[in-house]
Amino acid sequence: MSDSMWVRSPLAVAGNPSDRDSGKASAPASGGDFSDSTEDLLRVRYKLTPRELQVALLLVEGLSYREIAETLKISFHTVNSHVTAVRSKTGVPAIRKLPALLRRAR
Question: What pLDDT score does 33 carry?
Answer without folding.
Answer: 55
